[in-house]
Amino acid sequence: MEDWRDKLGALKGLYPADEQTDSELPAVNEPTDEASPTLPRKQQKLRLSMERAGRGGKTVTLIRGFVGTDDEIHALCKMLKQRCGVGGSAKEGEIIIQGDHRTRLVELLKQEGYTQTK
Q1: Beta strands, E only, 16-105
Q2: Is 7 helix (H, G, I), strand (E, B) or coil?
Q3: 118 in any annotated domain
Q4: Nearest CA to 31 among 71, 67, 75, 66?
Q5: What pTM does this model have?
Q6: What is the pLDDT of residues 31-81, one digit of tens each?
Q7: Sheet holding 88-91, edge to edge
Q8: Is residue 35 part of a domain?
Q9: What is the extent of the structural domain holding 106?
Q10: Are residues 72 and 94 in the same domain?
């Protein structure tokens, strides 16, 4: 019985089904070098907004416009959550903070050097 990866690779034309072994298969979750370079804090144009729609009536504060790697956005999210004492997450290039904390977050971000925050 053939392996499903061999069949898929043969269909995509990556390699012939009988020439490549499992050790030669490309890694599935291998990191790429396509991560966007992080802009300096003074050049980051962060925009804060409050949203309630589509979240079960719960209010959240969204921070959009961060340009950088996933590790850096997660570190910024962690710092903001700790300083506000609330939960949140970083998904798809935006930071989600539970509750309406726009004024507090603007102050915190400006203290951290994100001067173009609105």
Answers
A1: 47-51, 60-64, 88-91, 94-98
A2: helix
A3: no
A4: 71
A5: 0.66
A6: 444 455 778 878 888 999 999 988 888 999 999 999 888 999 999 999 999
A7: 47-51, 60-64, 94-98, 88-91
A8: no
A9: 41-111
A10: yes
